[in-house]
Please model this.
Amino acid sequence: MGLALLAADWAEEDIPLIRTIGLLSNWFGPLAADALRRRHRGGQEALMWLAQRVVGWGRVYVIEELCRGSASSKARPWLLRHFCDGDFLNGYFAGQVATSAHLHEATTGPDVDDDLIDHTGRLLKTMADCGGMGLTLERYPLARIVLDAYVGHLSRQTATLNRYVDAAMIADHLAQKPAERLGYTPEQRDRLVRRYLAVLDREDWCETVRAAHDPDSDFFAWFAGNVAARLRLRAFTDPNTEKS
Model:
């Protein structure tokens, strides 16, 4: 009840108290996030502080408030590089981050770094598999711009296991969905998938995934039998790639 009263006010001196209460995010997250947003400049700094310390549903509430309307100039760089913590609940707000933080502008702008590219991969992978939760790639109007920019940047990155997996899962999603649902003709979609495969099948990328993946992992057993098999990824189909 006390927090509800604070949420109806604008006093900035209440920010430290609200922020502390917000750490109990599973119970007080929505109201605390709303209360902080009402403060000076939307309470952006306090919301970012809280977003870095809460998980699960609490993180959903806080990041949704950060995204409400359009993300501030302070929140935007953080959202573009740090919003995703790997929880499946990220699907509820990934599309909101892409929209409010202007992901299409960031990925085609002059200040593209590895953190932005890696996070874009996680965001696209999340949006590919969040039907029923949040905005999907099929319904994201600027998906084509971001998908094209991401694979262009990816081709210039050093291979890592996480980058490989994210890109493969995005390519698999593109290959499995009807092209028109993604806003492509079949020929356009196939060309885009081939661009992803051109990176994934490069020798340095294949060597990286062969050396780094755990063949006894349940995830990689599923990945090899599904994603890699459908895409015929060279790192998993080449008969001379057995791990020593």
In short: DSSP finds 15 helices and no strands in the chain.
